[in-house]
TrEMBL record:
A single MF term (Gene Ontology): enzyme inhibitor activity
Family per similarity comment: Belongs to the PMEI family.
Positions of the Pectinesterase inhibitor domain: 22-163
Species in which this protein is naturally found: Musa troglodytarum
Protein's name according to its UniProt entry: Pectinesterase inhibitor domain-containing protein
Length: 168
């Protein structure tokens, strides 16, 4: 009897890593693999789980979701900049808002293209465009006030880029 219990425990210990690998969700797997890319694992999990589609998504789908979350944040920033432009009290502030609006108006179609490229498995191209898209927020620093939205945008873009690099 003792021998069979011992063998059962030994077998369980040997199989435990395989059981964990099988039971790990795609979100946890992806976030485990991207945490070395300037992305915190907990941030990754929390962000991806915030989108209801993530519960049924594979790694590629999570990449698309991350890119689409980035698009959503960029769209919020563009709306904020439009409001700044509308309320600009002088030509200097107006020109600064116009510059920032131009940057974010151009980055949104690029981000959409990246999301479509991830969905089509063109990961290298999507990753390159996401790398360039990172500069949109930093280009606006000192031009217009974006507040926490700029940091949120950068973090989302880094997440989308890290997942895309993981998919290659």
């Amino acid at each position: 009897m003792r021998r069979s219990v011992f063998l059962s425990l030994l077998l369980l210990l040997l199989l435990l890593p395989f059981i964990r690998a099988i039971s790990a969700s795609p979100i946890e797997d992806v976030c485990e693999n991207v945490q070395d890319s300037y992305v915190d694992k907990e941030y990754c999990i929390r962000t991806l789980k915030s989108d209801l589609r993530s519960s049924k998504a594979d790694a590629k789908g999570l990449g698309v979701i991350a890119a689409e979350l980035t698009i959503a944040k960029a769209t919020v920033i563009r709306s904020h900049i439009k409001e700044l432009l509308k309320n600009a009290s002088n030509s200097y502030d107006r020109r600064r808002a116009e510059a920032a609006l131009l940057i974010f108006s151009n980055v949104i179609p690029s981000l959409r293209w990246s999301a479509d490229s991830i969905a089509s498995k063109f990961y290298a191209s999507a990753g390159a465009v996401l790398f360039v898209a990172l500069d949109a927020a930093s280009a606006c620093v000192g031009v217009v006030e974006l507040g926490d939205a700029a940091d949120d945008y950068v973090n989302l873009t880094l997440l989308a880029q890290a997942i895309t690099l993981h998919l290659r």
